[in-house]
Amino acid sequence: MERTNQKTTTLAPKLQIAYALLGFLLGIAPLAVGVMPFGCALLCAMPKKGRKETFFGVLISAFFDACIPLALFCAVYIYLVLSSKEKSGGVYTFVRLLLSFSISALRASYIAITGINDIAGMFRLIAAIIAYPAFTYAFIGFFHKKKEIRQKHYDISLLSFAFAFTLLLSPFEIGGVSLAIAPATAFTLCAARIKGFAFGGVYGIACGLVSGGAATGALGVLGMTYGLLANEIEPLALVLAFMLSVSGYFYLAGVDGTLTAGVIFLAVFLAFVPLRKNLPILRRETTSAEKRAYDRRLARYAATFSSLSSLFYTVSDATKEESITDLNGRIVKTVDSYCSHCDGCELDKSEISNFFTSEYRRNGVTAYNRIPVHISSKCPNACAMARSVNNLQAVRERDGEKGLRQIADEYSAISSILIEGAKKQDNTHFTDKILGDKIKNSLSEVGVSCDGVRVQGTRLRTVTAYGVQPDKIKRTPNEISNAVASQMKTCVSAPELVMHDDYTLMRFKTIPAFKVECAKISEAKSGETVCGDTVSVFENDEKYFYCLVSDGMGSGRDAALTSRLSAIMLEKLLNVGAEKESALRLLNKALSEKDQEVFATVDLLEIDRINSTATLIKAGAAPTILIRGGKTALIESRTPPAGIMDKVIADRKTFRIQKGDMIVMVSDGILQTGSEFNLLPKENLPQMPAARALASKIMREAQKNAQVSDDMSVCVLRIY
Fold this sequence. Notes:
Blueprint: E1 3-4, H1 13-27, H2 38-45, H3 51-61, H4 68-87, E2 91-92, H5 93-114, H6 119-140, H7 151-168, E3 173-174, E4 177-178, H8 181-195, H9 197-211, H10 213-229, H11 234-253, H12 258-275, H13 288-319, H14 324-339, H15 349-363, H16 373-376, H17 382-427, H18 433-445, E5 452-456, E6 462-466, H19 477-488, E7 496-500, E8 503-509, E9 516-523, E10 533-539, E11 544-552, H20 556-575, H21 580-592, E12 600-608, E13 613-619, E14 624-628, E15 631-635, E16 651-656, E17 662-666, H22 668-671, H23 691-706, E18 712-719
Antiparallel strand pairs: 1-2, 3-4, 5-6, 6-8, 7-8, 9-18, 10-11, 11-12, 12-13, 13-16, 14-15, 14-17, 17-18
Helix pairs in contact: 1-2, 1-3, 2-3, 2-5, 2-6, 3-4, 4-5, 5-6, 6-7, 7-8, 7-9, 8-9, 8-10, 8-12, 9-10, 10-11, 10-17, 11-12, 11-17, 13-17, 13-20, 14-15, 14-17, 17-21, 18-19, 20-21
């Protein structure tokens, strides 16, 4: 238990005012109607220094409470109990928490007595029970003497202060938008700059909850985007964060309120630009290799966002307000479609078109009884024209809704890519203390003594043993590596000794458990010069190996274009850390929104070279063959290709792999033999010396059986 027992000190007048103002402002911040717990929670957490001034501020805030006598009693009760305990030897943490629980019970009893008539009343009761002790504990972390040791508790206290101050403006609105969005944006930007993208995202979501549902997602993406990029490209980071926050708010809230929210966002951003120089920025020491990896990731993000951004501009044309010129043009075409089937009349088509345009512009609809008599009496299609003109609005709304759905999907995809990339970036700096202690014990068992072991990362880990004495090591490097690998459950490199004067470090790194040999062969359909299949093989920085076989609709150049588009898009998304399902969903959306019917099969294999697992995702793809120990196993799926349906339907299969395995991926042209997959025996398959030999054998057999009646592609992967 911690204990606070500070000497009596006299605060400077400015600090006295600051503490009193802090107590007052937190005291009037409403968590719910009739529940304002922050002032009392702060008073419970306050050390002796500043308590009197804070008490004065909380006391004044009591006059803004729904039950003034109860609020006054709580403030006085807290102050007297803490002062009494201080005189008797100090205040322990559990005393502060017990005090907050007693205040919570008083407030909850008052709410229960006055009546709980609806869901809002139940929420007030729950808030009163939980909030007082929860925020008391949170605020205690701010005043702890050893903040470095209790860093997480201190971080929670800062988030609690930000949450409470954001609530101050929650009762006020402008243009239907809560003014709380202004401090929420400011706190999010500050947290992202000082503490990084993870804190920026948490602050954005927490403070966004106060500002309304639309602000939650928008500010969460804002914090992660700015925190992720501020360290290297801050001007661009601010611009990108602003654009994503506004577009996110627009997606979640619609047109209403977006302009007001955008103005508030812009005002806070403009105020933050000059002030940010006074804030420290989170910087991590990086090696040249890490810097190059960061640059590669940044380039991939840029390429991915560049390829996706065009949709926003395309959709904006469908959702923007229609000009009177465009409207008149559409109505003229509608009138012409009827007049072209008539024998002719004395009416002027321009007059009819102008009338419908004027009515539509003024009223949004054309009533039959408002059609001039000289038009309705002489034109037999006047009412039909009116119906068609009225339908233009429905068509326009459908186009707009379709465009908004596209924006929603694109925004969701970009957000998920940022979040997934941010998580992986943060994982590289995670320190596993428990695993470090286990590895230290394992090293001690093989005769390697050290001062301590640090394990950094969650996937590609780096293990550093500090204070090693090389002259006392008797075991071989392989034995030492095996001792470390037994705890990490992955393969590790041979130990590397790093000398710093008289101090020695021993370092290990996670390495892949195996290598992958790849061979791919494609053959165009007879009579075609270009193969419509695309086979793509690549590996990202996380040691995930990918093989993609995509078969475009039909054959020839059009099929090749579709399959290459699919391969390029998936490769870009997977290289920046997108999840496979998210990437496939985005590809399906891109194909299904094409003006012409376009679809492609997707056969995606992901091999985790660190954890020895493989995942197959199939959308309309041909079966895959797993060869192990001379036996073959068929992995198949019956799903439609990407681009046919609005929502992609894909099968996902995950399995363990081991050295000696061979995986065969093919396009459907290989299987057009009339007897399913008979190109390989199910058992007693002879050992192939290389992937190329097996790929060539399969292609020869397929050509012999099918006479190249369709595009053919085969890709063989050998694990060794």
